[in-house]
Amino acid sequence: MAPRAPGIPGYTPADLHRYVVEPDKRPGRTAFQRDRARVLHSAALRRLAGKTQVVTPGSYAHAWDATPRTRLTHSLECAQVGRELGAALGCDADLVETACLAHDLGHPPFGHNGERALDEVAASCGGFEGNAQSLRLLSRLEPKGFAPDGRPVGLNLTRAALDAATKYPWPRGGRLADPGARKFGVYADDLPVFHWLREGAPTGRQCFEAQVMDWSDDVAYSVHDVEDGLHAGYLDPNVLLSDAERHEVFALAARRYAPGAEEAELAEALDRLLDQEWWPHGYDGTARAQARLKDATSQLIGRFCLAAEGATRAAYGSGRLTRYGAELIVPRDQRLECAVLKSVADRYVIQRPDQSRIRADQRAVLTELAHTLTARAPDGLDPQFRTLYTEAPDDGARLRAVVDQIAALTDAAALALHSRLVPLGRTH
Predict the structure, then answer these.
(1) Containing domain of residue 335, as a range?
(2) Claim to verify: residue 42 and residue 171 sit in the same structural domain
(3) Are residues 273 and 340 in the same domain?
């Protein structure tokens, strides 16, 4: 008999179960170390290198190299933040890192803009959501394991790892507190594995590790999107001193990132950051400016993580916090500061004047690709998705296979496939 993987403090044997039982290949390695390795070596993670985070690689307003983040580098940075915060709170560090590495795997080409297009395309088969697509990749699409009956089981991660990577633990329309919520974490045809991974979990509640992942994601992208905007020359920090500009930033924050927040408390949140000695009040691309900006990002990440660690420890003590034994507590001041940073990046980077037409073109590319592939299918589909299409039991499942193919593309691959397959004379 092969040696069993060692137990993990704070986690039950049920947490370490896999959907399909399989022997360990290397004695002494924990189940969560294996999970981390599987995500790290996955093709889905590699593809994130070709998916834009917020600033398109090669685009910038000034004559210096912006070197912006991609979805891959964002995921790696999120994983570093999550691993350290999780470990400080008593989680298994490999488990939290796995969740952070996996959290964006399902994002399609062109990010949230691509999500919007594919959600419309997939309306008749349950819509599209990047987080639900991530679970689909982890549990079905990423080729690694198969059940005895031949069904693909994706990376066959542990129950705890899949749960930790599930940011929105409900299907579309299934959030009890908000049935109309736009975000959801599982498609109808993936419910069997969802019910398995959520066995015994409180309905609609994130496990503690997923909460750590979720906050680490917020911290990483709020801070780094602003940093990338400064590097690219799209954001002048002095605009944050203008009353008119501040009003627009706060209105956006209250609408999208901190619902219900008053403008006065959002102003206090921004001013707390502007008053810090390390805040970058200017940026000119010099080595000194780059170093100062990097220090500011480090200070912000530390500020947000230490606040959460301190508040959570104050509530739950110094023991090991795992699974459903605690809630991550983030002080309101830091949540509002984070929300303001998100709003700054949204207003000055994402909503740049030239982006409206670009986003429309990107949505048209994915929509036209979907229509063309659906009309030609199974021709035009990659072998993996062709098999899903030909074995699909109904039209909804066939459409889902087409959407799976498109969601797997990088930005450049989507443009190249569109150029090859879609006839000339587009009307958009």
Answers:
(1) 222-311+330-350
(2) yes
(3) yes
pLDDT for the residue numbered 245: 96
Please tell me the number of Cα atoms within 13 Å of 202 on its side-chain side: 9
Distances (CA, A) of 30 to 90, 127, 246, 288: 16, 36, 49, 44
Place of tokens 């627009």: 248
DSSP labels for 247-290? HHHHHHIIIIISTT--HHHHHHHHHHHHTSTT--S---S-HHHH
How many domains does the structure of the chain reveal? 3
Q: What are the pLDDT digits (tens) for 9-43? A: 999 999 999 999 998 888 889 999 999 999 999 99
> Is 276 within the bounds of a domain?
yes
Identify which of 321, 324, 303 has the alpha carbon closest to the alpha carbon of residue 312: 321
Examine the pLDDT at 99 and tell me if it is beyond 90. yes
What would the pLDDT profile of 336-362 be if each residue is shown by its tens digit? 999 999 999 999 999 888 888 889 999
Residue 421 is inside which H or E element, if any? helix 411-421
- Domain shared by 371 and 340, yes or no: no
Exposure letters 52-68 (e unless 16+ CB within 10 A, then b): bbbbbbeebeeeeebeb
Q: Does any domain span residue 214? A: no
Shared-domain flag, residues 362 and 343: no
How wide is the angle at C-alpha 412 spanned by C-alphas 406 and 418, nearest 5°?
55
As a whole number of angstroms, the distance between CA 138 and CA 153 comes to 8
User: Residue type at 361?
Assistant: D
Closest CA to 133 of 369, 407, 414: 407
The answer on 341 and 396 residing in a single domain is no
